[in-house]
Specification:
It contains 5 helices and no strands. With 120 residues, it is mainly alpha-helical. Helix 1 packs antiparallel against helix 2 (20-52), helix 1 runs antiparallel to helix 4 (83-105) and helix 3 runs antiparallel to helix 4.
């Protein structure tokens, strides 16, 4: 997923300096990246909710992930007309969700408890 985020950043830079004939291609690539992020948000949120349900994830991490999910969910459901803005918002929110998931996974007790939940 880090590759997608890098691609999104490059798309944003390219959009700013494109010739008219290249703009459509770049916008299409940005739209594809946006669609990928929007599609992936639900799975990532679901995984995090499994960790959070253990009660072992720090509250500030739970809040950060919830804020990231709310932001990406809003932009995916009501995208701005400017694809560059949509990609930037979605990428930032998705990154916040990834960071929260990583923090949860850093705690072996969380991972072990989540594994118990998923096997029931």
């Amino acid at each position: 997923m880090k590759g997608v985020l890098l691609a999104l950043g490059l798309c944003s830079l390219l959009l700013a300096g494109c010739k008219t004939d290249d703009t459509a291609k770049v916008k299409a690539a940005a739209q594809a990246s946006f669609n990928t992020l929007c599609a992936a948000r639900v799975s990532l949120h679901s995984i995090f909710l499994t960790y959070a349900s253990t009660g072992k994830v720090k509250q500030k991490v739970v809040v950060a992930e919830a804020q990231g999910y709310a932001a990406i969910d809003t932009v995916c459901k009501n995208p701005p007309t400017d694809i560059t803005s949509a990609v930037a918002i979605a990428a930032a929110a998705y990154t916040a969700m990834i960071v929260a998931k990583s923090r949860a996974e850093d705690d072996p007790a969380v991972v072990q408890a989540a594994a118990t939940i998923t096997t029931q």
